[in-house]
## 1
Amino acid sequence: MNRVLITSAIPYINGIKHLGNLVGSQLPADLYARYNRCRGREVMFICATDEHGTPAELAAAKAGKPVAEFCAEMHEVQAEIARGFRLSFDNFGRSSSPQNHKLTQHFAGKLADNGFIEEVSEKQVYSNADGRFLPDRYIEGECPNCGYDGARGDQCENCTKQLDPTDLINPRSAISGSTDLEVRETKHLYLKQSAMKDKLDAWIDQKSDWPVLTTSIAKKWLHDGDGLQDRGITRDLDWGVPVKKGGEDWPGMEGKVFYVWFDAPIEYIAATAELADEKGEGPEFWERWWRTDKGADDVRYVQFMGKDNVPFHTLSFPATIMGSQEPWKLVDYIKSFNYLNYDGGQFSTSKGRGVFMDQALSILPADYWRWWLLSHAPENSDSEFTWENFQTSVNKDLADVLGNFVSRVTKFCRSKFSEAVPEGGSYGDAETALIADLTTKVRAYEGHMEAMDVRKAAQELRGIWVAGNEYLQSTAPWATFKTDPDQAAAQIRLALNLIRLYAVLSAPFIPDASETLRAAMDTDMDWPGDVAEALDTLKPGHAFTVPENLFAKIADEQREEWQERFAGTRD
Ligand SMILES: Nc1ncnc2c1ncn2[C@@H]1O[C@H](COP(=O)(O)OP(=O)(O)OP(=O)(O)O)[C@@H](O)[C@H]1O
Ligand SMILES: [Zn+2]
């Protein structure tokens, strides 16, 4: 397995994402991508903005901009913030790209050819005043379930019940407020997921190594109630991929677009094609990742996402791929996440509740957030961000353990020896024991990273940092120096090599700090094979510099100020 294809669920375009979105998809995907690159594997790491659908249209209308312009701008905003968090996408694409139009139309055409598309006549609400159909959020009214008056055509925000536009009582247009509505017959395309139910079920059954969160959601959708349902793949909207059968027009589908859920996952493929085009490469550039007849057989494909995206990735997208009856790559592993909550409630983009990615970067560098979020990733259950917990973690793990180690060792060496790895002395029992301990820990760390056990990997990495501190504490080179400077030199030599090892091992979690350490140690970043050997990389005489304070502690006043600043909602 030397090639790894990694995709993160694509963030929706309607606004800046919050820390929950980040830790539920993009950030752990980045951790895994970086780790695989460290291990010398060829990685293709793809993300994109998810740009179609009614929320995008409505957000654009609210911003007073044409939807295409709004999406282009918001894409840039999200891309810039992603760079700020050091998300190392090979491409951050756009689901509105021409490449995605073409691929989405291609898949729809193949599905139709193979009998997996059904045309269904439906009753839809038409607004005479607006001269258009009103899908999803374009229609509002009273919830038939709880009576809430602001319910939308797709869901009641008050009681969370999923709704159809025709369910609403006293409906009105969300665009004009008009109640001059009528129900009209219109045709839509459905993906016959039910026809692929057994195949999907058997496929999921093979995935015994997948997280239970992933398979249990898939099984629920496959078997609950009447089992897996067919799903509409078209919408009466202007903004989206026009419904076509491959390159051909689709009679009866004029003026309709594909439903956003259908084109969004296809964008993983399209974003890779976008990259090929950007680089001026031919189709073989991206097909070797996606077509098993074009070399993708030896690719391991891993997807990252929050739990609400699991049904689409375990069932709908595989149904699209399988139904095409073409040799496209199916996902090999789906890493899913529970939810991160914010200070006693939920993160919410629509309500503006929580800390958003731009805000986070405005108060602290990326590494602080990356470390906290990954070490508290909502893997086995939902987890919660609190400012107290964030402060404690940053101060203890990053400042007291890692930062302090680096600062003590480099400053001590500079003052007692020089800014170069000191010569003399030799390793004894304490060093042998440390190396044995670190060997166990490094191999465990690798195991957790391979398995995408994010929290366990963070724990282990922290343990590796702690081991260095304990070594320093027990051997006390500052005391040794007074009686046996040679021995102290050996201890510091080992400790400087440990800093180098920390730079290498920590790179997937905290890439900026890792680079600072690497630059200070003026060294390569080879992943440790034999740990004893790795700790012998920096030889006596190798010059280094004392890095600037690696991590600043968060003071109580800062924490209180942020707590207050982010307690309300953003508009
Ligand atoms: N609180 C959360 N914790 C972890 N992951 C989350 C959380 N909320 C959303 N996600 C995940 O973030 C990714 C991007 O989501 P997307 O941009 O579609 O926003 P969303 O699911 O509509 O959330 P919101 O409505 O809060 O913006 C998805 O994989 C989704 O499952
Ligand atoms: Zn309701």
## 2
Amino acid sequence: MENKSSDADVIYKLLKSSRDAKKAAYMPYSKFPVGAALLCADGTVIKGCNVENASYGLSICAERTAIVKAVSEGYRKFKAIAISSDLKNSHIVPCGACRQFLVEFGTDWDVYMTKPDLSYKMMKTGELLPLSFVPESLEEERLSNSIKG
Ligand SMILES: O=c1ccn([C@H]2C[C@H](O)[C@@H](CO)O2)c(=O)[nH]1
Ligand SMILES: [Zn+2]
């Protein structure tokens, strides 16, 4: 008997993990819990939640928490991220800072923006941040500087 989960099973589990991750949200100021679940290339799932601070501007979103946790554990290749909030009538979308954090690791992986019933909208990281400034952008800059002498 084959014991391999289908892609649809993996994504369904990822959506549920992001909803589960929301339970740990530390959001005493906004009272707006967000959870994220990041699917790494090897199938590992890493969760994240928003973590706020009395110095409001230091608050970190669920998506960036998940990315920072993953990278600090040695993961850099990602297939998808799912995001969950309590908003019933709209899909939660990543903020601008998180979109920039996501494209750092590629412009062609999947962002699942959910509602609490796990219905979702999916867009590619690069679609969420067109004309993005990415690691290659720095290389081109260095190259043109070296040509200029
Ligand atoms: O996609 C989002 C949008 C918002 N937040 C957090 C930031 C802040 O803690 C709270 C309200 O903006 O929700 C996230 O974690 N992810
Ligand atoms: Zn964000």
## 3
Amino acid sequence: MQARAVAKGQRMKTSIATVSLSGNLSQKLEAIAGAGFDGIEIFEQDFLASDFTPGDVGQMVRDAGLEITLFQPFRDFESLPEPYRSRAFARAARKFELMNQLGTDLVLVCSTTHPAALGGIDRMARDFHDLGDLAKRHGVRVGFEALCWGRFVNDHRDAWEVVRRANHPNVGLILDSFHTLARRIDPDSIRAIPGDRIFFVQLADAPAIDMDLLYWSRHFRNMPGEGDLDVTGFMRAVTATGYAGPLSLEIFNDQFRSGLPRLVAQDGHRSLIAVMDRVRRVEPALPADLPAFAPPAPVAGVEFLEFATSAEEAPGLEALLRSCGFEKTGNHVSKPVGLWRQGGVNVLVNTDASGFANSSYLVHGTGVSEIALMLPDARAAFERASALLAQPHAQAAGEGELSIPAIRGVGGSVLRFLDATSDLGRIWDIDFRTSPAGAGAGLTRVDHIGQTMPYDEMLSWSLFYTSIFDAHKSPVVDVVDPDGLVRSQAVQSGGLRVTLNGASARGTLAGRFIEDSFGSSVQHIAFASADIFATAAAMASRDFPVLQIGANYYHDVEARFGLPPALVERMRLANILYDEDAGGQFFQFYSAPRPDGFFFEIVQRQGNYQGYGAPNAPFRIAAQKRAARPAGMPKR
Ligand SMILES: O=C(O)c1ccc(O)c(O)c1
Ligand SMILES: [Mg+2]
């Protein structure tokens, strides 16, 4: 609720095209209004397919607290010979009447792809001048957009020249980041256009894929920040012109068309706030139409991970922790929460039969319910997250205990913010009674956290992390499971590394985990060791249920990397896998999966290795599936 107030209070006017969401018109309006947008673009087809009169639609939009910022598209207008030209004007007159009934004054004309069109910049300008006269008589305005596959106009600079020559107050330019950036047109060329001649701005990002422009545009667009286009550079240029109209998302995306409209709309609004925040930070001289909130900060590290479980299931989890070298070194002052420690790693085991942990346990079973991050300034980070529409999480703290700022994260789990500069840095003294930990098995910190989710949620959660924190994404990697593909997106912010694993096939290890744990959650935690062979030996002596890796793997890895046979033999004995990149070397081993598919991983990074051992994932997954299957059972 608080987040909503911040979003509504800003001056930047936000809008989204109805094509960006699934559902019927009423469902879309509800989702768009609920996410805090000011307006919508009505895509003509959405209107034509509905049973409402134009007057009804206008009323529905206004009743939802929204305005119609744009009606679109009007196609194949300019540079036609007769009789097409007259027909195009007659068609335009009809649409202008419709716009009056809808209650909107701006229409988007996209550059022609008509086979009979003649082209010619002055012919196009004349047509637009005449259309401007017609528009004026109807009290509406016309904006010209260059489709990047337009026959004669496919560049905003040419569209601007047409508009400039049309020289009519009712005719202006419409910019769409996709069309400009997809053709790699320098967005700074926009800075030369007067802001008051830009009637409307559409924003969309897209992943860098080499394909036909039209197909790419109609199926793969995504929210600013979710793709690889320089939407920030585009918006900096737009802002520099003095443009003060709506920022409108126009996202043609197959996945969004079937997603939950409420979530897609919320991601859209978050992406607009994030992109304008980036604009003001990269180019502070530009006017900022956003309320002030803290800049994104890098995460220093993971301070604790909390498992929600029950008194019955806790011993199994604690045995696994003990086998990793953890020791129970403390208890919460008022709740049944145990602290398990080793090196810089803190794991909490919560068996509370009430409150959030219990709800999490009841929904997901034993699993990670909370992740606490160490930040430069926890309250500033919380304020920023709230401004970016994160859902705050509050649970009353006991007398004298810390009230730790928290938001909801993946799968409804909780993300807590701590810092070293306030009382929050003394959490172990204030909220816990602790005793010193022993030597452990050499685990030093959390290296990364693997969160598994349906493929459809991946973009959403990567936007969540990259907009709230100072974070960057690695390219998505495909992980081959024998029963389907899992895509993995790594996001890193300072000392926090998260891998978002998106499963669409239910038979994959990740897909089964989602089913077994009823939704997205942490499927694995990787701990770092400075000497993985010593750690493996220490854990083996504590009966760690190591994942057995087959001999075939070691023959291959020796040949592939030219590793010394003695090293490979040590790896084989300890079930350690290997990878390397330009920066350095990487060693890793795993636990067998728990019955629900959860597992631990131990890693050692050498030099500047930046990956996660993705080339080993198929072997790891096959081994985990073997380990999870009772001996003698045929595969599924
Ligand atoms: O794909 C299209 O045809 C289309 C139509 C209208 C737009 O504003 C646009 O960017 C693309
Ligand atoms: Mg467009």
## 4
Amino acid sequence: MIGAPVFIDSIWKAYGRQTAVRDVTLDIPAGEFLSILGPSGSGKTTLLTMIAGFESPSAGRLIIGGRDVTAVSPDRRNIGMVFQRYALFPHLTIAENIAFPLKMRGIRKDLRAERVSRALDLVQLPDYARRYPHELSGGQQQRVAVARAIVFEPPVLLMDEPLGALDKKLRESMQIEIKQLQERLGATVIYVTHDQEEALTMSDRIAVMAKGQIAQLGTPADIYRNPETAFVADFIGKMNFLTGEFLGETAGSQAIKLGEDVVVHTPSAVSGYDRAARIGSRVRLALRPERLGLAARGAGGTNILPGQIEASVFAGSFNLHLVRTDFGNREIIQVQIPADGMQVPFVKGTPVDVIAEQDGLRLFSDVEA
Ligand SMILES: Nc1ncnc2c1ncn2[C@@H]1O[C@H](COP(=O)(O)OP(=O)(O)OP(=O)(O)O)[C@@H](O)[C@H]1O
């Protein structure tokens, strides 16, 4: 199977006065795994449904494999689909379920059997052909749904929260399976999820959606390290935010005042907010919990945020410390310290210094939506 490129060209969708998708443009190369990630109501499903052809756009074009399919019906777009609860036909066996799209396409019976057994091998259920859906676990049924979506070798696969109904452990193993399968098939995959961890682990690129628009498009590492807006920073991974005053920029470093005697410096090149930076303006400083350190009060150093331990909890691979700052609005900062080596449990009220690594800090305007 060879994937097809998908070009979403300035697509809009309005329902009455509400705009669900607002001028979305996405150029997806053949064979890419692209996730559409966003909160509930951000327009993910609407966008996917338009690619599938179940809804038509209010404006814009959709080009698949170089062909304008904007006005083409879903069954003629040659797209495989898997949804959160893609009900299998209960009265058909697993093999008959998977053969269904082939039958619809008028493929001969002997060829059908061969392709069904290949699809079952691919999703690692070779011995289940004669069973019925109710005899399979949720994860196995979802694998059958995947087999049914790929059996006719579509160059484009659409998946809408396909693992949403599964428990965490099964989700994680299915994530790897789907990713490996996609790499073997070479299909272009457009994958809708509201689970940022899932998007980070599976995707070549992620399109973060907010209010019907693409807030940011990039590789997982790019989006995680260099979020362009506070919304994206907040949505991807855990993030602490502190409000401060922009003091200015010298020698590639920006100074932010967080409280009396509390000033931190961020490197201008990566920290953002170099666009409309004004001295004296309010800014939001974003700090990843895993890029923060903890030291006894007064140990010295730079970029120090004094506070007191509110709580310390063991979280498996790391210890999570909640520190109430001694400045500003006395907000709580989350600090993640790897749980290797010796760990001193901190007692509530212990005065500490949170040490903020410069490279891990990002700066945003306080006024963005
Ligand atoms: N058929 C419809 N008629 C009217 N409004 C709709 C319709 N379908 C979606 N909407 C609205 O469009 C917006 C986007 O919905 P959509 O289902 O695409 O979001 P989503 O990001 O997929 O959300 P979720 O993660 O909850 O599924 C929502 O505000 C929703 O209420």
